[in-house]
Every structure is written in C-alpha cells, then in structure tokens.
Design a protein that fits this description.
The chain is an alpha/beta fold. The protein is 37% helix and 21% strand. It is built from 14 helices and 28 strands. Strands 16-19-20-15-14-22-23 form a 7-stranded mixed sheet, sandwiched between helices. It has a 4-stranded mixed sheet with strand order 1-2-6-5, with helices on one face. A 4-stranded parallel sheet has the order 11-10-9-12. Strand 22, helix 13 and strand 23 form a beta-alpha-beta unit. Helix 2 packs antiparallel against helix 4, helix 3 crosses helix 4 and helix 4 packs parallel to helix 5. The chain is globular, with a radius of gyration of 24 Å. The protein starts with 10 loop residues before the first strand and ends in a 9-residue tail after the last strand.
Length: 489
Amino acid sequence: MAGTCAFSEIIEGDVYKYYSEGEWKVSSSGKTVSIVNPTTRKTQFKVQACNQEEVNKIVESAKAAQKSWAKTPLWKRAELLHKAAAVLKEHKKPIAECLVKEIAKPAKDAVTEVVRSGDLVSYFAEEGVRILGEGKFLVSDSFPGNERTKYCLTSKIPLGVVLAIPPFNYPVNLAVSKIAPALIAGNSLVLKPPTQGAVAALHMVHCFHLAGFPKGLISCVTGKGSEIGDFLTMHPGVNYTGVAISKKAGMIPLQMELGGKDACIILEDADLDLAASNIVKGGFSYSGQRCTAVKVVLVMESVADELVKKVNETLAKLTVGPPEDDCDITPVVTESSANFIEGLVMDAKQKGAKFCQEYKRQGNLVWPLLLDNVRPDMRIAWEEPFGPVLPVIRINSVEEGIRHCNASNFGLQGCVFTRDINKAILISDAMETGTVQINSAPARGPDHFPFQGLKDSGIGSQGVSNSINMMTKIKTTVINLPSPSYTMG
C-alpha cells in the first residue's frame, strides 16, 4: 500500500512521517502515536508524535509561504487544485484502504469518500475563480447627504494561515473541505488530522504534494492532542481555525461543525415506506457515526406501529461484519465509543424502553438496534450515541415533536415526512436547526449546499461559496475625487 510506488516516501520503517516545508520528516521527539484498527482492536499504523517546536517551525513556514502564494495568479491556484483533485482520484484505492483499516469504513463507502473529495476540490477551484475574480464598485451618492465624490472598490483577500482539524468519520472529505477553499483564497494551510484517520489524511496530503504546490504552503502535523492540540489552536501565527474551542482560539475567525441530535418527525399522512427506508439509511449508514445521522424518530402515535414494523423489516436486511466485506454495519471507531453506546442502551433498558432487536455486541461491533417507546427521561432521547442505535419517541401532536426537537442543545439538521407541503414548511420554519430536509434523511451533501448548525452544533456555514467567503476578508480602497463626478448617458 503506502510502502510502495507513489507513497513510498511518506513512511519510514513502520512509522508514517509528518509533512513540513514540502518534505516528509521524522519527529525529533522520537515518539510515535499508535492507531488501533477498530475491527481487530490491534495497532494497525503508527504516526509521528510531533512536538511544539516542530509546530512552531510549521507555522512560521506557513506564514512565509502564504505571502508568495497570495501573489500567485488566481487561475494558477485553480490549475494546481484541479491537478491535486486528479491525483487524489487516481490514488483512491490506497487511500480507501487506509479508511477501511483506521475507521472501519465499508470499502465501497471509503472509495466514494475519496472520489467525492476529489470532485469537491475541483468544484472549489472553479467556484473560487468566479467568487474571488469579482469585486464591488460603490459610489457615495447612493447614501443620503452625499455627492458623488467617492468611488469605493472592494475585493476579497486571504486571512493568512488556516488551521484545519477534521473529525475521524470523514478524515479525507472534511479535510479537503477546508484545504481547498483555504488554498484557492490565497491562504496557507496547517492540517492536524484526527488520530483515527491520520494515515488516510497523510496519503491525501501527499496527493497535493505530487500536484506541485509550493513548499511550506501545506503542512500536516500528527501527534497527541495534549501535546500539540491546544498549542495549535492558541498559536499566535494562526489566522483562522475550525475547532471546538472558541475561547482558546481567541479573536480569530472560526468555522465549526460539531455534533447533532437530528430529529425525524413523521406525520400521519407520511409515505411510511419512504420514511422507513430513509430512517434506516439516515440512522444506520456508517454505523450511525455521522453528525447528520437520524438520532431520534418522533412519530405520531396513530402511525407509529406501522412505521416501527417497516423500519424493523428494513433493519433485518442489513449486513453486520468487517468493513473489508462491505458490510452495512461495521465496528465503531473505538472501544470507548462502544462502551458509551452500551451505557445509553442499558439506561434505556432500565427505564423501560422496548427493544425491537436483541442487544448484541462483540468488541467494537454493535449490532443495529431500534428502541421503541423511548421517553424523555432516558439518556438516549437527548444524547448523541454516534452508533447504530436509534430511539423512537411516540408523539400526539406536531407541536410535541417540535418542542422535543427544539429542547435539544443541538441544532444541526432535522427532517419531516409529510405529503402536505404547507405543513412541511411550517414545521421547517419552527425547527431550530441549521437545515431541515423534507421527505429525506439529513445529509451534508451535495457538498456545495450550505451546511451549518445552530446552538451547540456549530459556528459558521460550510458549502463551497460559504467556505471561500469565510476564508477571506474584505479589503476596501476609496478614491476621493476633488469634485462630484457624474457619468452622462
């Protein structure tokens, strides 16, 4: 895999290197971080445990490289991004193999993530040329009390050094969703990948290296969060970040997509076959380890029995096993994650929830489970399991469902199933979430759609145009004229 061909230089012995100043390096710390395979629960990979001195050097080189990159023509930035996208898709197989071994992502889904990421990089390149290639021209006499004595020119300029810290569940896609807008906007980029997913991210970064980006413009630093995590987020050389510690990050722009407790509201007139298939797809794909997964079903009592029956029938068709076999349900990422899920399940059992399937677990592998008759006093009604367990709460009115949704600390996405578009719009407007899907499960994509959360689910909005705009700031030049000037038609 990585030890041969295009990726041979990113590994030494059995330890992967980190990327700095256009080179693959071994940390002076002499320490490594182990990455455990969720399926075998044995060490699969090792990466460098970088230290704070190396982080300082990376940030300094990023600052220097950014100055030159900002002067690079926009068309040239786009050209390099298109090249990186092609290289990324060319090497989709070895990167996907890392995703299978690091985060137990089903093989077919792993390949899809890499290809999708390449397409996203290209989309950023194209849209970036359009967004950044235009400025604004304002005249002063549009505001009361002013003559036309001032011409105002505005343009978008880069922020400087961007820090990206993606989560484990999409370590390639959610990394490039920061890398590509940062680079097209003229910024440099420092990537701190998650431990589970770090090797896939290192492979992805090497694709940008092979595309020929300038030295120091892109860096990838691996290591323990306790050693370099907070140090990075509070680093004075960082101008933009997307991590969940706004107080520590200080007065720099933030873009954060955090957790969710995405509610699915089912009305009496819903297409229950459509709803059931979307509940299973939305709640159990990638074993429920998605921020936009359906996390709670709020169904009207009159159709609850029929809906639960249909969901159970669809659940029974899911395959359970290792990601190499393309099973629908694969091991969750860590043993601690499995333990947390089990804690929620046992709490629900103690308080009287109805188990539609037998609870079954082997190591990190948790079998899919639907919990019916869940009540608000159960932890599973509010906490995010990030696993293949889904609670069903029966409601007697739409207002009850909306109240439960809005009482959550999270507000990422939600969905409503009904044949009445007027009801759907009214419910959507009432739900305190960043996005509401009508007659479909929550989802982040397509990747160019706006993606944002309310409350504890995040700050800022992703999506191609939104991300590019968030990674720039406005620069204004005002031309003052000696006397009013009017162009005559």
